[in-house]
Amino acid sequence: MSYQIRQDWTGEDDPVPTGGRVRLFGRLVGPLVLVLVVAVLVLGVLVWWAAAGSGASRAAVGEQVPLQAAPYGRSVTVELPGSQVLLVAGAPVDRIGHGVLGRTESGSSRDEDLVAPDGGRLVPLSWQIRSTAGFGGNEDTEPIVVRLVAGDQRTELGSTVLTGTSASLDAFDAHDVVVGVAGEVGVEDLTIEVEYDGLVQTVDVASGEVDAGAARALYEPDRDFAAACGDDCTLAAAPSSAWRATFAPLTLSWVTLYPYDAALGWAEEGSAWAGLRLTAYSVDGAEDHAGDHRFVTGADGPLVVRLDGAEPVRTEGLDYEDFTGFRGRVVFEVPADAEPRELLVAQTAVLDGDRAPRTLPVSARIELSAR
Amino acid sequence: MSVMSPNRVLAALVAVVVGLAAALVLLGVHDPRPRAAVGEVLDHPFQEDDLPHRGEVLLPWARLEVGASPATDELPDLLGAEANLRAPDGGSFVRVAVDLPEDFGIPLAAVAAPYVEEIEVVLRADGRDYVVDGPGGMVLDPNGPLGQGGSRWVAVAGHPEDLEVRVSVDGVTQTVDAADGSVSTDREPVVAALAALPTDDELVEADDTPCGPPRREDTTGLVVAYRPALACHVSLALRTPYVDGLGWAEDGREYAVVQLVRPRDLSFDSPRGEPAGRWSSDLTLTARLAGGTPLAPEVDVNSLSVGGFQDVDNPSQLVFDVAAGQPLGDLVLEVDAAAELGAPWVTDRRDVRLVWTVALQEVS
């Protein structure tokens, strides 16, 4: 190796290698750098694409994208008067595959996966209302409102009225949906609210527990109380009365304790409504000890009904009609854990003619026992 | 130029390329989906294929086909989309299937509605128990609603090989081995007795047994005023090992469930030789079979059917405890009528007693 010292105009020494291998390397550096830079760019794009969602569409915060099937998640049933809300709530995810996504608004199927909003998550859900009202069906017009709460974000999933509107035809449809939420929301941050006539029941998704508040009684077996006289209840005059009723039957349903009344709304927490239907037939006639007989022409005053001495908070019907007598529904307010013991039913029959007595009061004290 | 020597630039670029390649690989294998908790019970929204090895389990009200799938790593996809949940760490999923075949019905006897029997379904995987019938799980309830049984996926620890499904009713358990569908039980005789029950159709077709004329065991001389009111017949006599509300019969014993139409309202005329009078009465029934009295109060049969048809004859039901395999013998019905003359001003009271002895014909 020999070096030629070259003196340039700056006066610095500048050794120039002139060996073979180093020369080859020197010629490859340029193309190598170029290849690597391209590789960096390509890989960078791929990594960014994979991280960002590789050809997926991004949900907006608060957006509800329909699914074609219920997702996997925790199943919880929320009880309402006359219906239930069946819920499935899945833990938040970053992405939902396009196969299960519902069609777009224009009706075409989707070929792109759905990813969460930037910095946010997707919450997969299913909710459906089922009627428990039996043969009579649901008559109520109170909306059932279902909401997702994720941290401090509230999204209304739906408000459904079961009867009386054209939308009620779809009231029992299933709703499978994924909701975009902001922030790194975890399953422990999720609750679902079901609101009905001012009462909100809250479902903690992580544990599946329902905070039902005043609706708690809907999750427990019915509390019914039956009359000791069964099908043979009758009203009778006082034992000391000179006149007795010949026939004064009374039919009554069970006394049922329940938390929500269609007319009165929710009972206060710690209280319940106690309701029954009854028919106090018009008294057939009256007879005295000598066998003298009189007919009954009507009733004087309303039917008296007392539960353990208390007056009802509501009566429906119970307007006297000839032959039928008094027929209607009576509701009392009682403590939620009450064990009603005695029902008092009384009416005053009006007797025909002008002589005394003009009326005949008849009554029954009916013992109740739990079914 | 010395800071940016070719060697350093090359080394830096190679490092970046390797880093990006590694990131790409990690993004590919990293699965950000949430994990199911061990014991979580999940529902796949579509009908799934029948499992190949199922065993027959008998509930008091239904025949069931029960099985479990081998453990798998993934839940079934949802229309091609990956499941939104993955297995617990180191765990897997097992599908438990409980199906009701077309002819699933077994006649259920009960003393009250709604029915109260307690049914449990448990997956035992490598010795660890997982409840399948809890909240959100499989529904098996004779009260309804429709859509009972089905499949549920259970998130389990590890990858268990030894799988059993245990179905219990009021403490009696039938166990299905998922590997071959073989079934064992801790109370062979009562399960066999369930299998031997007649079908619902056979019960409906069973003939009524008339009670025949009653014998009078009183000396009041009162005469039944309206003889058709004495109509009495037994519409059903069924032996069964289980009654909802009473549970399972003891070993060597069975229940005899008798449904009958009997007098409810009797009035009488005064005897010849006394002034004419019409007596009203209140009736009380005492019944005896095979030397015993009923285990539960007489109950209105129409009140027992949950959504079923109502019998216009208003039959009532009595349940007795009898020896298994022994003939039932005669049903003895005593109706005591506390008769009153002159109501509402009662002047006389007499007790009438009518007794029927009925040779029961069991449904077979």
Number of helices of chain A: 1
Assembly annotation: heterodimer
Q: Please, what is the average pLDDT of chain A?
A: 89
Query: What is the terminal separation of chain A in angstroms?
Result: 114 Å
Percent of residues in helices of chain B comes to: 10-25%
Structural class of chain A: mainly beta
Radius of gyration of chain A: 40 Å
Bin the strand percentage of chain A.
35-45%
Shape of chain B: elongated
* Uncertain residue ranges of chain A: none
| Pair with the biggest interface | A-B, 56 and 43 residues
Task: Give the termini separation of chain B.
Answer: 105 Å
Radius of gyration of chain B: 33 Å
Let me know the number of strands of chain B: 23
Largest sheet of chain A: 12 strands, antiparallel
List the helices and strands and how they pair.
The complex is a heterodimer of chains A (371) and B (364).
Chain A: H1 20-52, E1 57-58, E2 64-66, E3 74-80, E4 83-89, E5 95-96, E6 114-115, E7 121-131, E8 144-150, E9 153-160, E10 174-181, E11 190-196, E12 199-204, E13 209-211, E14 223-227, E15 243-245, E16 250-252, E17 255-258, E18 260-261, E19 265-266, E20 271-280, E21 285-288, E22 293-299, E23 304-307, E24 314-317, E25 326-335, E26 342-351, E27 359-370
Parallel strand pairs in A: 1-6
Antiparallel strand pairs in A: 2-10, 3-4, 4-7, 5-6, 7-10, 8-9, 8-11, 11-12, 12-13, 14-17, 14-27, 15-21, 16-20, 17-20, 18-19, 20-25, 21-22, 22-26, 23-26, 24-25, 26-27
Chain B: H1 6-29, E1 41-42, E2 55-59, E3 62-68, E4 92-99, E5 119-125, E6 128-131, E7 150-156, E8 163-169, E9 172-177, E10 183-185, H2 188-195, H3 200-205, E11 209-210, E12 215-216, E13 223-224, E14 233-240, E15 242-243, E16 247-248, E17 253-261, E18 268-269, E19 278-289, E20 299-300, E21 316-323, E22 330-341, E23 348-359
Antiparallel strand pairs in B: 1-7, 2-3, 3-4, 4-7, 5-6, 5-8, 8-9, 9-10, 11-14, 12-23, 13-18, 14-17, 15-16, 17-21, 18-19, 19-22, 20-21, 22-23
